[in-house]
Structure formats: C-alpha cells, structure tokens
What does this fold into?
Amino acid sequence: MRILIATAGSRGDVAPYTGLGAALARAGHEVTLAATDGFAPLAHGAGLGFRRLPGDPRAHGGPTGRRQLMRTAAAFVTELGRGFADAVAEGTDLLLLSATTTPLGWHLAEATGLPSLGVHLQPAAPTGDFPPVVTGARSLGRAGNRAAGRFALRMTDRVYEPAVTELRRTLGLPPLTAAAMRRRRERADWPVLHGFSTALVPRPADWRPGLEVAGTFWPHVGPGERLPDALEDFLRAGPRPVLVGFGSMAAGEGERLGGIAVAALRRAGLRGILQSGAAGLAADGDDVLAVGDVPHALLFPRLAAVVHHAGAGTTAAALRAGVPAVAVPVTADQPFWATRLAALGAAPAPLPLRALTAERLAAALGLVTTRQAYTAAAGRAARHMGGEDGAARVLRAIERVARAGTASA
It folds into this structure.
C-alpha cells in the first residue's frame, strides 16, 4: 500500500512519524512523509519519500501567550491550507493524518475518495479525565473538563475555518464548515491512533469508539548512528551528566537560559550537557558541554536526569530511558505533559520557564539526582512502555483498512 503521512509543525511534530514510517516500510508499504520545509533530511534518513507542505511555523515567531498562540496558529494554518492538496499525488492509497493536518485532510479524503486514519501525538477528544491539553493542567471537574474540551475543539475549528473554506473551493467541493466536517467524522467513529504511552495517559473510558492509545511513535534512529566523538569523550570522562534542552522553544533566550543552567548545575555539583536547540544554549568549561541535535534514544540512557520543556516526544524519551526529569514547560501542551510526569513521580513539580531561576533549578536537580524515588518511578514507566508498540498498532489498523477495501472492491 502507498501511504502518505501528513504532518506539520516543529521538529517534535515531525520526527515521531519517521520511526512510524520506517516501521510501515519494513512491513512492505511504500511510505512518503509530507511536511513543511526543512524536514526532507529527516524523511530521507529514515528511508521515506518526501513531499513539501506549504507553510512554516517558524516564520510566525515563537509565541508564549495563548492569544498570540491562536493568532500564530491561524496564520500558519491558512498558509498550510494553500496548496495542501498538491501534496497528495496520484497513486496514494491511504492518508495518515497528524492532529495539525487532520482538519484539512478530511476534506482531501472526501474529494479523492481515499481512506484515512488519524495518528495524533496529543489527546484532543473531550473527556472528563483531564482538561484540554492546550489550556493548562488544572482539572475543572469531570463536567467542566468535558465542556472545556468541546470549547477547545470549537476554537480549533475557528482557526481552520478560512483554510477549510479555501481548500474546499480549490477541490471543487460544496461548502461545509470545519465544525460540520468534524461532527460528520465523529459520527462515523473515524479512527485515531494516539502515539503516546498509556503510562502517561490511559485511554479515557468516556472516549467514543475509534479512539485508541497505541503507544509512542519513536523517531527513527538508523542502525549505524552514533553519538559524536566529543560527546562520547565527555560521557566517559566523569559521572553521568544532566542534559538541559528546550527543543524548539525559547528562541533567542540562549544566553539567559544557558547562564541559569550552568549556574544551577554547578550549584548542584553536577556535570551538564546543553543541547543548543532553538534557544541557542551554549557554555564553556570542563564540566559542561554544548551539543546540537543528537538522538535521544542513544543519549538519554546514559544521563543522570533531563531538564526539558516537556514536549511530548522528549517527555516520552526520558521515561523510556528510565531517567528522571525536571520539566520546564513553555506553552501549548507542555504544561499538560509536565504535570503528567510529576503525577507519575518521575519529576518534581514543574518549573514554568517564566519563573525559572538558577536556585530553583538547582534545588529540583538536587531532588531528582539524590532521591531514588524519582528514578524508580521513571524505571516503572520505562518497563510499561517496553510492552507497547505504537507502530505495530498502526500497522494492524492499516491492515483492517486494506481488508475493508478488498471486501468492497
């Protein structure tokens, strides 16, 4: 089967699909990744085809407030919608849609008659178990959580409405609102497989049929990939270090955050690795090393702890390695994952970026590196995650789609 995986966003929104795509390719499928500019090397490195999607989330800045986040999302989605149909060339048999591309992909599937599945990295369906992941971590009670979840979906539909209107016109489809299409898909129990672990989010009992928690989709790591020599030398030169990194967050704050990180590490008596990321973290000294992008799967098992922004992928990678964390959430779904880590006991209470100081970070690092309860909790989660296979769950869903197509032919 010729499968197109469509996603859009930052590296954390794209990298997990390289591992999923590689697993599907090993099962005999022809897999292409459609993403925005800059991610072709990730796709090709995993042995996948690549098609460019329009739009670039980095072109609209790095918002931290919710209102600014909504404005940024609307600008990005409008750009993404223009030319989205061009990414699906003739010969595609199945669409796998991320959360960012699903509200557009539904209309493309209608126009082409292609089957589609959701492969989402965050839980978005309303539930009484927790509030919407983009509105913070404070529970509003079961009824309040469900109401807030429905409101969050209405806001999402508003963001996508202009792009949907333009896309349907381009595809020659009759007018239909983003909200009406969502209701149509929900009534049909459109399948969504969520690429996170039940160790972090068990499947809510009040979700509709068709919504599954599959297990984490891990970024592809090639069999020949190794850590850089300088990093290997640093790891061997002393006790396990702590990694500090904020992924695609905190652009332009490298000097301030690097200073906080180094001061905190030295106050806690720890060696450190600063992952530059969008912030541009940098440092000098025998006890601190600055690095660029390196595979988390190769590095994290060799660390004492990870300080990170609580993106979904980094959160999962630290748990998979059995390593405790200090979560420093910035925006969007990060406070949600940070709170989940703390609830598991694998991290102390989150330290929001705006309140981060060297003193607070040093105190948190002291906790996670000296109290074995944090490492034990991360280890329990790692063992749980070892029994999950998100890519295999997606593969079984694809096989069901193929059988249904054969039966209807």
Notes: The mean pLDDT is 91. The longest strand covers residues 30-36.
